[in-house]
Design a protein that fits this description.
- With about 200 residues, this protein is mostly helical.
- It has helices at about 5-10, 15-25, 25-50, 55-80, 95-100, 110-130, 140-165, 170-185.
Length: about 200
């Protein structure tokens, strides 16, 4: 299995056990929201490619990321279909919208912060796949373990691109600001289960 120690070291907290129990009690909802997250991740990558043209490294990495996320989306859909699970419309969690609130409105700050948020979301997704995998049925466990490598790479790509966009300015203070906000969202109670929700 992919070593996720760099992910654990990066994030400000690990997923609480209470969320893992909540997820295992809501496996169908877990898969449905997971599918939506993959679709949103692909959309975010495409948005960056459209908004910030000119950086060939970023555009290549986001193009690859979008393709991978859409492939994951197809894989989750296939699992749902195989299990006879309906694909219903559900509301997104507050996680991403709340995490994005401190993003600066001017450039290049907006670009740098958006990339940092992307790194954090990918890191948390990777950490949650690893936390869930040992508790799942063999098919789902194998699938979630297969996602770890690409999610870990996505996290690293986003973070490197953020530092590149910031130039000589360190991004550390911005990273810590968003990580602190992310920890609040992960550890605070939520009334609705989602893949990135807090605890029940």
């Amino acid at each position: 299995m992919t070593d996720i120690k760099p992910i654990i070291d990066f994030l400000s907290c690990e997923t609480p056990d209470a969320w893992v129990t909540w997820a295992l009690d809501n496996e169908a909802l877990l898969l449905l929201d997971h599918a939506n997250c993959e679709k949103k991740a692909a959309s975010t990558a495409l948005t960056l490619m459209y908004r910030y043209v000119g950086d060939y490294e970023m555009m290549h990495k986001m193009s690859r990321l979008a393709r991978e996320e859409l492939r994951h989306y197809e894989q989750v859909m296939s699992l749902m279909q195989k299990r006879g699970q309906a694909y219903d419309q559900i509301t997104p969690s507050r996680y991403a919208s709340e995490l994005r609130k401190p993003i600066r409105t001017h450039e290049p700050g907006r670009y740098v912060d958006t990339l940092i948020v992307g790194a954090i979301i990918e890191a948390r997704s990777c950490e949650r796949f690893a936390r869930l995998a040992p508790h799942l049925d063999p098919e789902l466990q194998q699938f979630y373990e297969s996602l770890l490598k690409s999610e870990a790479r996505h996290f690293q790509d986003y973070l490197r691109l953020a530092q590149k966009a910031a130039g000589t300015e360190s991004i550390e203070s911005r990273v810590q600001l968003f990580l602190a906000r992310e920890r609040e969202l992960i550890e605070q109670p939520d009334d609705t289960f989602r893949f990135h929700s807090g605890v029940p």
